[in-house]
Amino acid sequence: QVQLAESGGGLVQPGGSLRLSCAASGISLDYNAVAWFRQGPDRGRDLVSCVGSSGANSYYADSVKGRFTISRDHAQNTVFLQLTSLRPEDTGVYFCAAGPQSCPGYVLGYDYWGQGTQVTVSS
User: pLDDT of 48-107, one tens digit each?
Assistant: First the structure.
């Protein structure tokens, strides 16, 4: 059974940082593209960042470039998303997703999803 488990969310002040983790079981993330999507209030899930299966390519939404960094830990079968310089508009539930393609920008491009972790940026 494939499971993706996100962790690391929380309440943080504007300008603060968090590190989100996506730990996988039942699947090797080495052979999958892994993405982070964000779902804000009354919104669909938007692609925030993704790393291709090779690890050589990565994608960031314009709104997070220079502030978020995606990375892999092959030994832990985990993908991280480092969030820095957080803004109130970064608030939302962050979901990780895995799929065989190279970072599609749409939800249906991913086969496996975690339950999400809440990030709230507020003073």
Answer: 999 998 777 899 999 999 999 999 999 999 999 999 999 999 999 999 999 987 888 888
Tell me how far the alpha carbon of residue 74 is from its chain's centroid. Answer: 16
Q: Two tokens at 17?
A: 């940082």
What does the alpha-carbon distance between residue 97 and residue 92 come to, in Å, rounded to a whole number? 16
Amino acid identity for residue 41 in this structure: P
Task: Classify 109 as helix, strand or coil.
Answer: helix
> By three-state DSSP, how is residue 107 classified?
helix
Contact between 51 and 58 under an 8 Å Cβ cutoff? The reply is yes
- Of 19, 16, 24, 17, the residue nearest 8 (C-alpha): 19
CA 109 to chain centre: 15
